[in-house]
């Protein structure tokens, strides 16, 4: 790796733009990560028929990813600290590609369940590692926008996976699209390793002006961190346990992940069951809420930065914005229960647009609450979200079974469940104080 003195020129006054290349690399990595994560949803009914799985078994298969994702959150973040993100992120992406190949080869419940568990383990470290990359490469005033790109490209991956697998399942079967997703992951792994460096000053294409631009806002914080040693582990643990905002932050993550998991697991099957739509039509309709999440996330990232610049108030730009968007999302889902299922998709999509506006706040609030301990906090909050993501497909699978046994199936019960989930997220966000940082004594 190049030394800091050789990697950028001290004479250039205009900042280079390598940070945008880094953002593009992270964004495309999240897009590819969500191809196998969301690509199984449109294939669920086909896989059930091929492998003779009932709804409860398929729910466990869809939930297995979240079990692995939960277990490897903090170890994945530590892996990035130990190896450096230049090595850790490609390694995680490669492992995810191998896991997805196992899914394509599965011929039984046991193997497909294990492959999804391994996929969750492989992808668990991506968020904490990427949060550290954003902190190292993006100026503080632009981190809301940068975080919105991460969140939006997650949903872009979900959209592509949903549309592509729904279109290819008839001509190619359910296995070949998963093999293609794995090949894309291997290509990304090689490119990211060649083009990325852990620190701006180590990249051969950055100049002094860009490094100064990135680090200017954090210079005072860095000086304070050098002067003040990190608290002992026991003291840090006490601060986390006694921080009410952190508990509420974890709780909103449970609710939001529970809601989002529905759209990348059971939603196409819900459309098939409630409206009689074909696999292809359900797959296309399922893309609408995911597209809305992308647009909402992009709008939310910019809005977070603007509100903070206008008011200087982190509660308004983080908590209040997220609480309001989750509340309107819940209202939209309730209204969707009053119209035909296919028409309800449009109201649900309005709701997911609003829910997406709160996505960047999760990244930025993790930095606000965590301070020097950002990677630890975002790993903990992500683990909390995994609980919701794990419970969602299991709960919906059980609810599907219950609804099918009713004399007259009442599919609106699914919508009532998720309206309640987003109301829970609303209350949690409304009580979070992003100024209550763990770095404060």
Automatic annotation (TrEMBL):
SUPFAM superfamilies: MFS general substrate transporter. The chain crosses the membrane at residues 20-40, 61-79, 91-114, 149-168, 174-196, 244-267, 287-308, 320-339, 345-364, 376-401, 413-432. It comes from the Bacteria. Residues 22-437 form the Major facilitator superfamily (MFS) profile domain. It is found in: Cell membrane. InterPro entries: MFS, MFS_dom, MFS_Na/Anion_cotransporter, MFS_trans_sf, Sugar_P_transporter. It is a multi-pass membrane protein. This is Putative sulfoacetate transporter SauU. GO terms for molecular function: transmembrane transporter activity.
């Amino acid at each position: 790796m190049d030394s800091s003195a050789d990697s950028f020129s001290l004479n250039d006054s205009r900042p280079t733009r390598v940070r945008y290349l880094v953002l593009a690399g992270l964004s495309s990595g999240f897009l590819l990560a969500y191809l196998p994560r969301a690509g199984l949803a449109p294939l669920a009914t086909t896989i059930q028929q091929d492998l003779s799985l009932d709804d409860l078994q398929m729910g466990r298969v869809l939930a297995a990813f979240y079990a692995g994702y939960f277990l490897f959150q903090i170890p994945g973040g530590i892996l990035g600290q130990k190896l450096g993100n230049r090595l850790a992120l490609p390694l995680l992406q490669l492992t995810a590609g191998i896991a997805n190949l196992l899914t394509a080869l599965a011929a039984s419940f046991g193997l497909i369940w294990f492959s999804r568990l391994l996929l969750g383990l492989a992808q668990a470290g991506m968020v904490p590692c990427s949060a550290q990359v954003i902190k190292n490469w993006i100026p503080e005033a632009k981190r809301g926008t940068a975080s919105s790109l991460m969140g939006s490209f997650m949903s872009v991956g979900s959209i592509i996976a949903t549309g592509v697998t729904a279109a290819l399942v008839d001509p190619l079967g359910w296995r070949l699209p998963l093999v293609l997703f794995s090949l894309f992951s291997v290509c990304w792994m090689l490119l990211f390793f060649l083009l990325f460096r852990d620190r701006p000053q180590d990249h051969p294409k950055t100049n002094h002006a860009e490094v100064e631009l990135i680090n200017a806002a954090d210079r005072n914080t860095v000086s304070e961190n050098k002067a003040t040693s990190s608290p002992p582990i026991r003291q840090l643990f006490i601060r986390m346990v006694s921080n009410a905002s952190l508990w509420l932050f974890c709780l909103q993550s449970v609710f939001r992940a529970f809601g989002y998991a529905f759209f990348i697991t059971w939603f196409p099957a819900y459309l098939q069951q409630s409206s009689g739509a074909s696999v292809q039509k359900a797959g296309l309709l399922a893309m609408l809420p995911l597209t809305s999440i992308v647009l909402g996330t992009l709008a939310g990232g910019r809005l977070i930065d603007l509100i903070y610049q206008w008011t200087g108030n982190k509660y308004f730009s983080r908590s209040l914005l997220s609480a309001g968007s989750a509340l309107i999302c819940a209202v939209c889902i309730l209204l969707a229960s009053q119209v035909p299922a296919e028409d309800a998709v449009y109201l649900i999509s309005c709701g997911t647009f609003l829910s997406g506006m709160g996505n960047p706040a999760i990244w930025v609030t993790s930095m606000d609450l965590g301070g020097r301990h950002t990677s630890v906090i975002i790993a903990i909050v992500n683990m909390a979200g995994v609980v919701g993501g794990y419970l969602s497909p299991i709960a919906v699978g059980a609810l599907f079974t219950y609804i099918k046994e009713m004399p007259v199936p009442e599919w609106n019960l699914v919508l009532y469940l998720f309206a309640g989930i987003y109301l829970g997220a609303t209350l949690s966000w409304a009580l979070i104080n992003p100024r209550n940082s763990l770095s404060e004594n």
